[in-house]
Amino acid sequence: MEQNNKPARPPYADFEAPQKFQAIQSIIAKRLTEHPKAICSYSGGSDSDIMLDLIERTRKLFDLPPVKYVFFNTGLEMQAIKDHVKATAEKYGIEIETVRPKIGIVQAARTYGIPFISKIFSQRFESWQKKDIPLSIVEEYENAEDKKAKIKELTDRYPKCQTLITFLCSCDNEGQSRTNTQNVINSRKYMLDFLNITPPRFKISAKCCDYCKKKIAHEVQRGYDMIITGERAAEGGVRAISFRSGQTTSCFSITNSGQYRLRPLYYVSDKDKAWYKDCYKIRYSDAYEVYGLTRTGCCGCPISYKAVADLELIRPYEPMVVKAAWNIFGESYKYRQKYNEYKAERKAQAKSNS
């Protein structure tokens, strides 16, 4: 049963790897039997490799119909990933269709802006830049005796900006302070002070993800009964947040469009993945096995705190991809470095004063 609109954690989530994957295979078999017209997003990453192997083993075991596999090429992909997608299709005797967005990553970044810190922060900063709300509203909020009234006054002063205002003031709609959420600026230490001192001189936005993956995915997935994706709770962040509407478990839900969504790896840990890789001799792409990356995702995406370090791992093998990533996201890389330096200085100062 669900409590607080959150699904209960199923027993198999705490099984050891062999039993856990057996349970997952049963879930896949049940859902594919119920919803055989299924489409699966395959990224060429390690989670996708485990997921695809699980699906194909289950299909053969239970004689289930084929699943439609799709790889979304953003326009900035490592050759290692593209080669791996082709090799995976050949290994399993399946088709993995490559789909390109109508608006590529270069055009999206130039038109709308580039990500910074996280998707949530990128969305809020984009709104802040467009609406030009002064950061001084935070001081107004902090100095107000009646914080609920102050938030009401600020939202009246700046119509249709409540989400941005509560983000900047690190509070909820009632003016109550919030600290344990990614939806407020204070979730990043000293970020507000940093913005005041060093405002960004480039456009910030997460729309490259919307145009290069989400929109095209929605178009391709239309008409299918079930969508299969590889999110894991162990990843943390936005991708691990459970669907809230009409779900029975975190690994299976129904979307607003009426389609079903299956996330077979939701309760799979890093330890589980390592066991499965060793047990079934899964070989990840050269991005992992040769370059030394621990995850791939969107190549060079500034949301990853390791983006610059990962690009240096890629550089000896694919220098042109690294050059392209710096041309697209360079301003965000440099701005994050400035923020990290500012944060380190403030922490050192606070330590010396204590």
Which secondary structure elements does this structure contain, and how are they paired or packed?
Layout: H1 17-34, E1 38-41, H2 46-62, E2 68-72, H3 79-92, E3 96-99, H4 105-112, H5 119-131, H6 136-143, H7 147-157, H8 162-169, H9 191-197, H10 207-221, E4 226-228, E5 252-254, E6 260-262, H11 270-279, H12 286-289, H13 307-314, H14 319-353
Parallel strand pairs: 1-2, 1-4, 2-3, 4-6
Antiparallel strand pairs: 5-6
What does this structure look like?
The structure is a single chain. The chain is of the alpha/beta class and 354 residues long. The protein has two domains: 11-109 and 207-284, HUPs (Rossmann fold, 3-Layer(aba) Sandwich); 117-197, no CATH class. The protein has 14 helices and six strands. It has a six-stranded mixed beta sheet with strand order 3-2-1-4-6-5, sandwiched between helices. Helix 3 links the parallel strand 2 (68-72) and strand 3 (96-99). Helix 4 crosses helix 10 (207-221). The model is unreliable at 238-248 (pLDDT under 50).
How many strands, which pairing sense, and closed or not: the largest β-sheet? Answer: 6 strands, mixed
Provide the CATH top-level class of the largest domain.
Answer: Alpha Beta
What is the average of the pLDDT values? 92
CATH architecture of the largest domain: 3-Layer(aba) Sandwich
How would you briefly describe this protein structure?
The chain is α/β, with parallel strands linked by helices and 354 residues long. It is built from 14 helices and six strands. It has helices at 17-34, 46-62, 79-92, 105-112, 119-131, 136-143, 147-157, 162-169, 191-197, 207-221, 270-279, 286-289, 307-314, 319-353; strands spanning 38-41, 68-72, 96-99, 226-228, 252-254, 260-262.
